[in-house]
Amino acid sequence: MNRNMSNAFSMIADYEGDIRKLFDEKIEGELPILATRNLMMFPGIVSPILIGRSSSMKLIETMSKKKRNPIFAIFCQKDTETDEPTLKDLYEYGVYAKVVRLLELPGQGSNATVIVQALGRCHLEEIKKKTPYLKGIVSDAQESMPADNDKEYLTAVDDLRKSTMTFIRQNDEIPDEAMFAMQNISNNVILTNFICANLPFNTDNKAELLRKNTMKERVFGMLKILNRESQLLELKRNIRTKTREDIDEQQREYFLQQQIKNIKEELGSGEGSPEKKELIDKAKNKSWSKDVANTFYKELDKLDMLNPQSPEYSVQLTYLQTMVALPWNEYTIDDLNLNRAKKVLDADHYGMEKVKERILEYMAVLSLRGDLKSPIICLYGPPGVGKTSLGKSIAKAMKRKYVRVSLGGLHDESEIRGHRRTYIGAMPGRIIKSIQKTGSSNPVFILDEIDKITQNTVNGDPASALLEVLDPEQNNAFHDNYLDVDYDLSKVLFIATANDLNTIPRPLLDRMEIIELSGYITEEKQEIAKRHLIPKEKENTGLADETKLSFTKAATEKIIEQYTRESGVRQLEIQINKALRKIAFQKAKDGEIKFSRITPAEIEKLLGKAPFYRDIYQGNDYAGVVTGLAWTSVGGEILFIETSLSKGKGGKLTLTGNLGDVMKESAMLALEYVKAHADILKIDYRIFDNWNIHIHVPEGATPKDGPSAGITIATSIASALTQRKVRKNTAMTGEITLRGKVLPVGGIKEKILAAKRAGITDIVMCKENEKDIEQIPEMYLKGVTFHYVENVLDVWNYALTDEIVGNAVNFEIEDDKEKSNKNNKE
Q1: Which residues are designated catalytic?
Q2: Full-prediction pTM beyond 0.70?
């Protein structure tokens, strides 16, 4: 209610005695029209109006200067934002009016306040002019006045007065001056119109009251609106009481939203926030279980109880968005065509027959059964053999989504299981986030570098957290701490990759199916370079259009043998890229390429001098030099064991070549075994008392360890002490025991490749390693003969010839009797 109500009352007091005469002042036809915003005038009311529009100001100034019949019409706008109202923008009923006083107050700028006197009702027919101010055709709208003795009307007016007084007392927004104004209005017509004009109702309600043709109808209409507003006011007070306990200093700004929410709940039409509506729409399309749905809607209800400006609201909203973003029971359709899958796998990767066979077996069983828990596969092998990229090919072959997570250096268990929502910045673990990103519950999931997870840190044990993920019997109900509901991972095809199984905890290793990927032989690397690496790097260096540009087979072999030392092909790819970059530079500089076929000579120009060389078998001209076979992280290598003897006090064993503890122990075992079987080798036992033994493994800067050099060291010592030649083109590998038993060793395939590169034709190994040879494809075994042994004597019988080396050492050992006679003569 306007604070000028008491002033308005004093201005209309003069008319109360002759109210009918006031309503009779009117002019029909074309009149100036004043359009008001949020102000509905009623007959007989005096009210101040703030003039803002320049056209309205011109109208008021004209009416103020006019001496005869300065009457105009006032109509209220339907929309307060309209600056130039037309006929449809104005309510159809208004009042005649005239200017009482024009006040130009300081501080109002170009605005002014005019006090107007409302006369009788009028009806707007049409708008005639818009300049310099609105003019329109208006007609008189007579309204019926009640009789002086109409008891129903008098009772209704009295009830309206009392109800209005009660409403003003209950409403803190209405000033106290309003009650004073009400008490001093004695005319019932003026009182009714005064209440209709000044109580804080919307203009649509007031326009409806002004349409009433009789004062009695207006009184009853006003009573209905007043009763409704009184009930709403009481409801607001109840809401304020309910919500007061929830409001603190940080939530005062939320008070209005809380009121609106409770009002909507009372009316049964609450729709919630736009975020909630979006979540509900997304949830309708989810095929989650009943338990998950109950959890979601329970958490969704909590959203309404939180202030949108509070941090808890953001945390709750993020959690709900995570739930609806996950692909609950949403799966891509597998393509189980085995012939197509085999073609895809063969086209993308050369070799890797074990892995391809295992994937095809899985697809075959899946096609027959229709539903199957996915296996947990661990691809184990040296770097650069294609373990990680194989996952993409498997996903492509099965038409599944692909996702990769690198676990190298992971030190926090929460990275796997997620953080509880009580923590600031909580989020799901990498498993759930990756599933969310793929949009499918059955992707091909690569767990890269699983052997490089940091274990037993202050933040928990990430490796142990993977136990549930990688257990086919448990991962159908994987529990993420952030999500706090079980998620089914049993349809996910997990493929882990590792370079070293020794660093993976046994419980975790036990849950995976280990498939070993060994290194490539030179011939395989040449095929990989030809099919994949060279075309890829030509594309990367902008030489894809140079169709004639190619590497000769000899050039590729030179890069493989002399510029890389690896089991895989990663460094090979780098060197090919380097060579092609040089050619791309030449083309960009000169506009052409001087050669199209890259030969070994061109390779040296492009890549410089070769940094590596392959060990080649060095012959058997020296006693005590034996060729062994070793496994390294970059593949197999040949290893030379050298034993030399020197005169001295005897009994001294020297080991050099950066040897580990296990290899040193093998040397001590070998020496003891030789001593114990000196008679079989026809060695004079006195040699051990007069000669020192020195065992050396060349390339001393390279650390060496492991038991597989046992028979090689034993043969080297035996050759040195007997000066017998070792059989030509022979290499050996195997662990020995103190009683001379030969034990099996690993890395057989890599060792065979190393032997073939060095020109070895015969390999001696443990009888139990024969089963490993049977699993190796024939192409790896071509040109090599295997000799299986069970003890060291078998090794000597084959490897030591009866031929003595040239310039053999003459031990010249005197027995004790000869020494005594010599001393007596002296």
Answers
A1: 708, 751
A2: no
